[in-house]
Predict the 3D structure of the following.
Amino acid sequence: MIDFLIGLFLATLITALFTTRLYRLLWWYSLNSLMLGFLALFIGRELDDKAMLITGIATIIIKAIGIPFVLKNLSQKFHFVRQVIPRIKVQYAIMLIPAILVFTFYLSEPITHMIKSNSNYVAISISSLFLSLLLMIEHKNVAPKIIGFLSMENALFLLGITATEGMPMLVELGIFFDLLMAIVVINLLFHKEEMKV
Amino acid sequence: MMLSLLLLPAVLMFMVSFSKNKNVSIWLSIISFSILLPIIKLFTLPKPYNIWDTYLVADALNTYILLVSSIVGIGVTFALMTLDKHVEVSANSYRRFYRFFAIFWIGLIFSILANNMGIYWIGLELATLSTVYMIKTNHSPTAHKEAWNYMIVGAIAISLVLFGVILIYASAKPILGEEAMSFNLLLSHAKEIPSPFLFEMGFAIASIGMFVKMGFFPMNLWLANIERASFYPVAALFSGILESAVIVGFFRFSQIAMKINYSHLFAFVFIYTILTIFIVSFLIFRAKDFMRLFSLSGIEHMALIALFWVSGGTFAALLHFGAHAFLKPALFLSTGVLESNGKYRIAGALRGYKGMKGALFWFFVSLFLLAIVSLPPSPMFFSELYGFGAMIETAKQSDHMLAMIGAVLFLLILLSVIFYRFVAIYQSMKYEGEENEKKVYTSELFALVIFTLSLMVLLLPSSMAFLRSIS
């Protein structure tokens, strides 16, 4: 089940890279976060780690439901450009994304050797990090860049779950708090008279 | 109790910033001065002092950095009193600036005093996010664009730091469990870490994140562009306080890395910082406005601090850090006056100051400009002497002595390029261009006096002895 969820996590991120509509992008981000939340719940149950279970529930509520909802509202309030065409053409992206995946698996090989459990998952989380960076790079508009930043945070969260079998609860909650703060700042940055994003 | 005292001024500042009273700016300034009181109290307590369990622990190093940062904060507050005299800023933006300054301060307290990698990261992220809005206080399209740039590049940098933290935590978790987040425990068990390679990877990635935040190679210009676009007190906060929070993290991580494999750490930082100074020195040579000039010079000094620190010149690094933290905000705050009439013009910027206030301003700016290029008796002169001494000592003990001494000489040539440019700029400010009358306000002078006095205190034998005791 965990393999299936982690596959879906990666698949939703890859699909987001090809998306040309903003609401679809939000939808893929929401699904990506949902998979992450389920992963935390499954791994937490396997390890009997209550903190990870709480984190999983918080991920689903905040990242899979809350943040996409807030971002959709913001996009309607400030009339975001909804057509978000990636700068990298589809035919090149099709070649680039597998190359990134293979490269990160090769790059993370020395690290994965040292991590006893879930070593492949670590490689996947590092490749997700690179793919999120690609999402930020390939778009000119601000909104997809924000999704890229949030996806990057998801990739790091996955790394935290898989490489360390969960970070301390206090740190996880702090990261959530910072994420909420980021959303507040993003909201403030979208000043109505300067919305040419 | 101590944590409440430390956070109280920031919380009060946050609450008062919502008031629409006419005198709110005076109240905000008074409250921001009070941040110094609990820090002085903390400074006098025996160390290490547990502020919040083992999560926040005050030791000599972080208390010194917090004290320096609070003095810079107060100096910036003085300059903020007359911000509207030099730039267009609405009352609402002014209050919002303080609101985010309060959040920034809370983030800083957590990151500077953290004995936990996770809490350090959370504090740093909070401080980074709050500065995004500070940039936006300037309602210009450039500032708007740069605020987004800061948000995105800052987020990437901070994510790299978190990536590094996770790898470091993963490397030490088998022996320390959840306590692997603690800096102190990591330091005392550094030799027992089962996967040193994993730690080193984590350290390198976290360091690159911190270096990007400080504007090191390859991101040399992003910080300069942001500081150019925002109001001058924001640039002063960046250079004097935010970079302190970043460098304290580097100090903590590198202390552990030194115990794991010193030669790897030294080679990594040495090559990275020399590359940074190489590029920055030429960018400084081409700089055509004060903000970019001071910002690029800040990158050079942060690179030197990192280099002195890993070379074993802890005293030199801390002295250089203190001197830079006072000098650079003072110079950034002076740009408010220097650029108020002549826009970005350097020629003649130091001419046209009348009266006692004008003469004092002219004197202070000259003093700061010459001190930043390490002319004696600037504390930077002494820190560079000790720092380069430490580097030569390290070179003597290494297997590549000649190559390293060659690199040190190369570094000195680069510093001479920067020295030459600053002296040329000073001469242009003083002896070229037109003479336009400029106005200096008492609060701005007072800020510069605070920085000058702080620099003088740094030179006292007791201060030097204190810095030596940290090392």
